[in-house]
Amino acid sequence: MSSTKHNKSRGVSLVEVMVTIVIGAVLMGVVSNSFPQLKRAADRFLNQALFEEQYLIFLLRFEDEYQQAAVYDPEAVEQIGQMMFKQDENLDGDLNDSGERIGYRWNEKEQRIDRKSGSGNYQALLDGVTGFSWTQIKDTPVCHELQLQTAFTNQTRRARYCMFE
Fold first, then answer.
1. What's the whole-model pTM score?
2. Which residues constitute the domain of residue 100?
3. Taking a C-beta distance cutoff of 8 angstroms, is the pair 65, 146 a contact?
4. Calpha distance 158→84 (Å, rounded)
5. Which residue, among 105, 103, 113, 99, has the nearest Cα to 57 in the 3D structure?
6. 10 Å Cβ neighbour count for 11?
7. Residue 73's pLDDT is what?
């Protein structure tokens, strides 16, 4: 009796390969259709996080300069939407140095808040601002309420600042 051994290799059939390719193609189609939406959501989240960081820096910087301000011009707030004040940066007791005039304004066209120091140009400080206003608070010492709307939320953000003698 002779026995013959057949070395039949166990491989992948053509049908199995085709099924795998079809499943892979379907998965790629699903992923490629949802990728732009996922990317937009990630970009929006990243932009909002960056805005929140810039917003906190703006609030801290503005509060610091507002509290240290010696003189402000209320007519500039009412007429041209700018908050202008002087601050004794070099502590020499003189508020007429060129670098001691500080201004904030809302740039409606660019949707941002700008800051200017001295006689220089305004520099972008906070992007993504769709609405902005300063309001002097009645029956108080020199106090203002800042109201701000952003491109990321419908909620109005408010902050109050008062100069104390």
1. 0.66
2. 30-162
3. no
4. 19
5. 113
6. 8
7. 57
